[in-house]
Amino acid sequence: MCCENGLVIVGVHSAKFPNEKVLDNVRSAVLRYDIRHPVVNDGEARLWSDLEVTCWPTLVLLGPRGNLLFSLVGEGHRQRLPLLAGAALRYYGERGLLTPQGVGLKLYRDSLPPTLLSFPGKVAVDDGGGDHDGKRLAIADTGHHRILVVSSTGRLLHTVGGPGSGRRDGDLSEATFYAPQGVAMRGDLVYVADTENHLIRKIDLLTGRVTTIAGDGTQGTDKEGGAMGPQQPISSPWDVCLGTAGGMEWNVLWVAMAGCHQIWALFLEDGALPKGRWETTRRFTPHNNPGLSAARLGSASLNPIDSLFTRLFS
Fold first, then answer.
1. Quick one: fold of 11-104?
2. Average pLDDT over the chain, rounded to whole?
3. Contact, 38 vs 10, CB < 8 A?
4. Domain 122-296 sits in CATH 3.30.1950.10
5. Nearest to 24 by CA among 121, 141, 105, 112
6. Least confident of 53-62, 139-148, 171-180, 305-314
7. What's the pLDDT tens digit per position in 17-59?
8. What is the DSSP string of 234-285?
9. What single-letter DSSP state applies at residue 133?
10. Close Cβ partners of 57 (under 8 Å, ≥ 6 residues apart)
11. What global pTM score does this model have?
């Protein structure tokens, strides 16, 4: 990738495990994450050593002669990087050391034939779908940024979103997603973990509409919850599962929040994401309760909010 101001962006993949050195695996990752800049497979860690890198991730800025200008270690440098890069571009630009010409680049994905699916994240099945055999499937076609609804025989019924990414609500024909991963389906409702948008979306096949029911579109750092769905920032929701609490059937949506390594609960009736609480007579962990599941969590309280946790593991 080359910008008009002479900045070239190159990704360097320095493998940590043996399988990550395999070129086909690197190509697959480039396709999965829709990477559009050149990527070097640094399988023997030569660049890692030459650039004195010590951990993942590291951002390195080089001068026009390959001289190391600075390194930013770890995450959270979104504000600093443009400032430092901008200063370097001005310095070398004023001295006529930059060449603002294009770099010949052909994306690997452009050499591949089109496919119906691209890295699908999950399939959900509804037994009351309404077509001839009573079943429908919802497929998170992650790489194509869309949700497909098909019959159990494979007949395509609905395509929502795609082929590009976006974060638009509205009619099925205009709604967009960004790398959706998890889906849950019951009747004419499909719930979607819109991962890269940091949103939970609802597809209503009966009304033909897509709405956002949780998340404000920014990646949140909150680990407690407590706000109503659309006002609560969330972080990389990866999967969703419908559950029952307080005697009300299918009234809660469990969300695997990958960004903060937690399980959250979204109450569907009022859109609440209750504040995390630990009110149990026994601490549940995978070690002392191997059969732990969403359906088994709860206390004797008649209040459904008291019988659920926004945060289970962190």
1. Glutaredoxin (3.40.30)
2. 83
3. yes
4. no
5. 112
6. 305-314
7. 999 999 999 999 999 888 888 899 999 999 999 999 999 899 9
8. B--EEEEEEEEETTEEEEEEEEEETTTTEEEEEETTT-B-PPP----SS---
9. T
10. 74, 75
11. 0.76
Separation CA 96–CA 65 (nearest Å) = 13
2: pLDDT strictly greater than 70: no
CA torsion angle for 164, 170, 173, 176 (degrees, to 10)?
10
Sign of CA dihedral 64, 69, 73, 76: negative
Percent composition of the chain: helix, strand, coil (DSSP 3-state, to 5): 15, 30, 55
Helix (H) or strand (E) holding 84: helix 80-94
In degrees and rounded to multiples of 5, residue 304 shows phi and psi of -60, -30
Distance CA 269, CA 241 (A): 16
pLDDT tens string 149-162:
999 899 999 999 99
Identity of the amino acid at 35? I
Residue 299 has pLDDT above 70, yes or no: no
Distance CA(164)–CA(196), nearest Å, equals 13
- Sorted by sequence, the CB contacts under 8 Å of residue 258 that are 6+ apart come out as 195, 235, 236, 237, 238
Write down the domain spans for the chain: 11-104, 122-296
Tokens at 159, concatenated: 């395509």
- pLDDT per residue as tens digits for the range 201-226: 999 999 999 999 999 999 998 888 88
- Classified as helix, coil or strand, 294 is helix
